[in-house]
Structures are given as structure tokens and as C-alpha cells.
Here is the input.
Amino acid sequence: MTVLSTLLTTREAAEVLRVKESTLHQWRWQGRGPAFVKVGRLVRYRVAEVEAYIAARLFPSTTECRLEYAMPNEAVSPNDQGVETFGP
Here is the structure.
């Protein structure tokens, strides 16, 4: 397999990730999502980068996912961290 055959278009990467192309556009602008390659004016995604992006988002529970993706100014209550609280 050649390097060029491992490059995906935005449409192809969106299909693999099951998101809209516009979502990938937003993620690029926000500095999120899989790493991409610029070829002139074209945007391409390496298959390995898309696979790594998916692998990095593998969570055993929704609690761990919420903690990982909480915004810096978003308060996470002790219950969200799996800490038992008693009383009102």
C-alpha cells in the first residue's frame, strides 16, 4: 500500500467516523479531531491518524468519558467522579 492510498478525503474520513463533513471542518478549526495533512489547498487524513483518534476515545464508562472531556471552567461534582455523597 502506498502513502497516497492511505490518505482519506474529508468525506471519506467523515464516513469512517460517522460524522458530517462539516463536523470535521469545525474540529480542524477548533484544533480537535484527527490530525490532518495539507496537500496544497487540499485536506487529507492519514488512515493511521483516524484509527489513532478512534483508539484514543475508547472508554470503559461514561463517567471516565465525562471527566476526560469536561471543559476547564465546567464544574464536575463529586458524584460525577464516582464519589459517594450522603444527605441533601
The longest strand covers residues 42-46.
